[in-house]
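Deliverable D5.2: sample structural annotation.
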Amino acid sequence: MSNEPDPYLFTNEYKSTVLLAPASSSSSSSLGKLAGQFGGLASLAGINLGGGGAEDKTVIAMEIVKTWGFLETFIIDNNIEVEVFAAKDWNRSSNQLVIDPDLYDVENKKWVRNFNPSRGQKVEPSSWELFEEFKDRVSVSQDKTSGLVSLSVEYYSPEIAKQWTDKLVKAINAHIQKQDREEATKSIAYLNEKIKETNIADMQSVFYQLIEEQTKTLMLAEVSNEYVFKTLSPAKVAEEKAKPKRALMAILGVILGGILSVVIVLIRNFKKK
């Protein structure tokens, strides 16, 4: 085994950040009122009226972005397994990623890493391994005062970091949009069946109101591209690295070196006594 230091141990990484605002829904206030009046009935029908509107969707979207299932789908849909798992640096002059040849053969486009079958490993990285490599590159946070959301990606290539940031915003909007569209469609079908089953005018009126609001949700989910998040400040290609902080590392190294020197002197004096 080589004792030489890893030249890629402190590789530069760049951060791209997009500033987002929760997209307000025109039906949020109406849903809130209906939730207070018919929340119990709606829940029995399997309909989620919510009440928080855009705030609820924002919280849900922020949590989903961090999940294994969502990030796995994002990696597969964008075909970035090699970039996530095998890249170890970025060549600025050629604008090309440096791929670890012990993991992936670029020329033949195949995985070549050593793997341990007894641990369930395969030559290709597993879904969990890809998630573990990617999750720490993505960060999402919300300002409690303004309610604005920041979504960031850190990566070796500043251009790829920007691309992934943009794609993540589109992906989470599409994910929540699809969920709401499917739920609204099922709810409308269910309510139409219930209208046929009852002759009570008041109950029919309630069902029609619920159908109206679910139809609004369905229409919004069909036409809106920025369903959960609206972009206030788009992501940019970073020109300065985000890490490693070499100046800070140097200062910490000096401090630790000083402490270690003092400890060694004290130990020697103690041994002499």
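Annotation notes: The helical segments are 28-44, 54-65, 68-77, 81-85, 127-135, 158-197, 201-223, 246-272. The domain at 14-241 is CATH 3.30.1890 (Bacterial polysaccharide co-polymerase-like).
The annotation will be released with the project's public dataset once the embargo ends.
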